[in-house]
């Protein structure tokens, strides 16, 4: 049987981690966060907290990735730490909700900004989003290096555009254009407000761990993977803080909170409609590139699950010519297209997606304590900085977010729990089928 090839460099892995994270979120969620927290200092604080969560997670995952440089990343850590059921549920949730839903939502965001230049009907908008998914699917089926090059190019282009946005805000904007004296007005507690705002923040920060899914295709995974995700977390946090400052230099918190296209509105303030068109192009590049990276990385989870005979066997097949998990890539994209056809957008399920995702993030972070106790003398090329404080912070924040989402967004949270319950039933079916075929 053909095998996955090790072709991804440190730069490729870093670009996958950054590109998976900086997608549509930073261009859409600032309005949600500003309308919730209202004051600049609280807005910046919640973005900083999100960055610290990403960094602590990256530092924790660095040790895990150095111990298990295998295809599947988080799936492997959960399976080795807690058993097959935990790993299966992660892959189950990723296939049916988290990653396919993210691909669908990002593709629709791409089509929405495409309509900035060309008037599209609702049907044409869906068709444009589907066409985008088909393109990135073909790119990633043709080879992991092709997918890596695609990731590199689009991530670099989007970073150039974002740097331009930051430059416009910092050098052409002014502190006087932002109301730094605004007061917080709400009947909710500060903790609840932060939890609500964190949904958008964590959606925007989500994705840096995608690089771990491609560990088996990295040239030097034990050294390069920890470096890549740590560098990515630092770069992403810096960019998000700067871009939010740029928004505040150009718009008041009230204007940010009421804008659905805050990036374009901010640039139009200084550069007019030409500036708005340029930022729309940046967002097109960003969303298209992110859809491509999501399409590249996550099928390695399904590939690993199928290799363990806990998912459709055809997903474990590697294309004989391109040496990619082509079946997993294609089936994932087909489901994402179905989501677009039936739902149009995934934005109304962001809380549901993040709730489920952060259950597994918390479990993955906690697994480091299990491995430290189980394998105290195991060789680790990378150890978590400031252990055990770093993973304790990450796991504690994950628990806080999940509990608050259950309180503030009960419908989405309970839907996620019910969905995971369905996954438990499916797991025992696949395991029974595997045991019967032995």
Mind explaining what this structure looks like?
The structure is a single chain. The chain has about 450 residues and is mostly helical. It has a single domain (about 10-430), classed as Amino acid/polyamine transporter I, CATH 1.20.1740.10. The chain has 16 helices and no strands. The model has no long low-confidence stretch (mean pLDDT about 80).
Characteristics:
16 helices, Amino acid/polyamine transporter I, globular, mainly alpha
Just name the CATH architecture: Up-down Bundle
| Averaged pLDDT | 81
Radius of gyration: 21 Å
| Strand tally | 0
Secondary-structure-based class equals mainly alpha
Integer count of domains: 1
End-to-end separation: 20 Å
Q: Assign a percent range to the helix content.
A: over 70%
